[in-house]
Design brief:
418 residues, 13-stranded mixed beta sheet, two-stranded antiparallel sheet, 4 helices, 14% strand, rod-shaped
């Protein structure tokens, strides 16, 4: 990780700053006879202005309610209003309104930028025409020249930003290397500290987003959640390592919409639903689905593990309600929870059919048993009414015919031995 240190600051970084200060102060070291304010600036001046320090508010003409404390503070201001410079060279060349600089060299280079606030040595040092920037901390927004609406709070925060707009950096060296892009937010020491040109990034936590350099739309939440230099990604710490089985009544699944909204997934109460009707034949679309085996692309699964499932585009052709779509409307996922409910419906329908078949078979078996019982009774009656030999032959015949006597037709011949 690139970090900002006092050692590095004491080299070319501050030498260039001090050279500019020396040049500016030397240029404006004018004799007292050239002063525009009469009497010479002291504590209280006309127009609600206040000045204390050598050549403070030296050039003031019609400006009102300005305050300058320190040698050459607000030195160039003529008709600007509501400016405050505290520290040697603070707002040195400023001519605009509503700037506040506290610290030696704070907003030193500002000329026409308005509504800026710099609190700290060399804070917003290079700002020239940028407006409504806020820098709190030594060298915060040091390199900003024309960027607007930036906020830097911390030593070296947004140090390298020159023309970027609407960036927010809170913490030592947060967004310290960012140069020219917009709308980044970094909260934490060295958060997004290596980012140089990416925009719309968010990092919260010490060293968060340290792997993000040029990518945009990256979110990193948590200390040392480094992320990756890949566009449109989100990284959150302490989630993957936290095991929370979905058991009992408390844990639940979380889903996300294409707009990024998070919410509980498993809500089945009637109070969340309307137009409730039986599924009936709607689940029969399952028979048109084609399960496949596959492997995810290496960008998403470096292990190339074999997986099983469905293809969203193919499912959409069968039933558009069974797929989730991305913000562009393309099929993105399969709503397997809906398929599970359909599988249950088909199972129940099949179960009902099986139960009806079993009931019908039970009725047939019952009738067969009843017929068998009647046949056995008739056979027993015939055997009892016949002579002994005939009874024996009849019994043999009954055994040969399985105890059944056909209805109708001539009776079977019985052989009676003389």
């Amino acid at each position: 990780m690139n970090t900002l240190s006092k050692t590095s600051m004491s080299g070319p970084f501050l030498r260039s700053g001090f050279s500019l200060v020396a040049l500016a102060l030397g240029f404006f070291a004018l004799p007292q006879s050239t002063q525009a304010v009469s009497p010479p600036p002291d504590t209280a001046l006309p127009g609600g202005n206040t000045a204390e320090g050598t050549n403070a508010l030296l050039s003031l003409t019609t400006g009102i309610y300005n305050s300058a404390f320190g040698i050459y503070s607000l030195l160039s201001l003529t008709d600007g209003n509501f400016c405050t410079g505290v520290g040697a060279g603070a707002l040195l060349v400023n001519t605009a309104d509503e700037n506040t600089a506290t610290g030696a060299g704070a907003l030193l280079s500002n000329t026409t930028g308005a509504g800026n606030t710099a609190n700290g040595t060399f804070a917003l040092f290079s700002n020239n025409t940028g407006n409504t920037n806020t820098a709190i901390g030594g060298a915060a927004l040091f390199s900003n020249t024309t960027g607007n609406d930036n906020t830097a709070n911390g030593w070296g925060a947004l140090l390298s930003n020159a023309v970027g707009n609407s960036n927010t950096a809170i913490g030592r060296s947060a967004l310290g290397n960012m140069t020219h892009t917009d709308s980044n937010t970094a909260v934490g020491s060295h958060a997004l500290g290596n980012a140089t040109s990416g925009g719309l990034n968010t990092a919260i936590g010490a060293n968060a987003g340290s792997n993000v350099t040029t990518a945009s739309n990256v979110i990193c939440i948590g200390a040392d959640v480094a992320g990756a230099n890949v566009f449109n990604r989100c990284y959150i710490g302490e989630i993957y390592t936290t095991v929370q089985p979905v058991v009992g009544t408390d844990p639940d699944y979380v889903t996300i919409t294409s707009s990024g909204r998070l919410g509980r997934a498993n809500v089945s109460s009637r109070r969340y639903k309307h137009d409730i009707t039986p599924m009936d034949k709607a689940s029969e679309v399952l028979f048109a689905l084609k399960p496949v085996s596959f492997r995810y692309n290496k960008d998403y699964d470096a292990t190339q593990t074999l997986a099983f499932g469905l293809i969203a585009e193919e499912v959409a052709k069968v039933d558009a309600n069974l797929v989730g779509r991305n913000p562009e409307g393309q099929p993105e996922s399969v709503r397997y929870e809906q398929i599970n409910a359909m599988l249950l419906n088909e199972f129940l329908k099949e179960h009902e059919r099986v139960e009806k078949l079993e009931a019908a078979l039970d009725a047939v078996n019952a009738r067969l048993k009843e017929q068998d019982s009647k046949v056995q009774k008739v056979s027993a009656q015939l055997a009892a009414a016949s002579p002994s030999r005939g009874g024996v032959e009849m019994s043999k015949f009954a055994r040969r015919t399985g105890g059944r006597i056909r209805r109708g037709g001539p009776p079977p011949q019985m052989v009676v031995n003389p």
